[in-house]
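Thread: quick sanity check before group meeting

JM: Hey all, I'm pulling together slides for Thursday and realized we never actually wrote out the predicted structure for the chain we discussed last week. Dropping the sequence here so it's in one place. If anyone has concerns about the input, flag it before I start.
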Amino acid sequence: MLLRQPATPDATPVQALPVDVRLMNAIAAIVFVLALVALAAAAIAWAARRPQFQFADVRLEGDLQRNSVTTVRANALPHLAGNFFTMDLVRTRAAFEQVPWVRHAVVRRVWPDKLVVALEEHQPVALWEGEENSDKMVNSHGEVFEANVGDVEDDSLPQFAGPEGTSAQVLDMYRRLQPVFSRMDAEMTALRLSGRGSWKVDLDDGATIELGRGTQDEVVDRTARFVRTVPQLLEKFHAPLENADLRHAEGYAVKLKGLTVNADAKQPQAGKQ
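JM (edit): ok, ran it. Output follows.
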């Protein structure tokens, strides 16, 4: 006998929710999530303002020669704002870098309430010629900065001058010329670059030398030839150098005290004024 299983009635289809109901449910879910986010943000903001997150210690690091810790704190701390979580480190760094003699500052937070600031001071290598009573100097990086010149113990700093933005170029040329003039036991007291690119040097014995224009290599080579040959003139006439002009193609002109000399770079010749 064959038994047949009774037919199962068709399942009732699930009716989809209306579009407006689904939209309302989605909006409600979004509002709920936003409320949770806002609540969490408010809780974090509230916690961040707690007194235990205020900086209890600001520690300064670095070799401070021109500044004291007290001076740096007095100049920078009034400009600081915020706590461990809210402090803007970029503005904080700028607050320390505006302190006189501070070239660069690196700021970091140390949990839970310390601010550590590593300071680098300007190392002056020259005075920068500017307005009268200017306190502008050139540091070891060739950057012009402003600070109290009276804080510098070394009163033998050379004087630099040049168009705006050329301080690094002047420092580089100074460093290249320094060993050249040392061969004639002379020190540069001033180095100037004109707007037309011509170099001029003052020496510690009072002599002034026009080095002329050209690439640094050309100027240095020209100066080296002068330093190599001028001692013969000084010895011959037994007179100190007053000024020299190296802007001639085949030689140079020098003026000794009481004498004017036109010299070939190879064979010096002299004539009385």
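AS: nice. DSSP finds five helices and 13 strands in the chain. The domain at 53-121 is CATH 3.10.20.310 (Ubiquitin-like (UB roll)).
JM: adding both to the slides.
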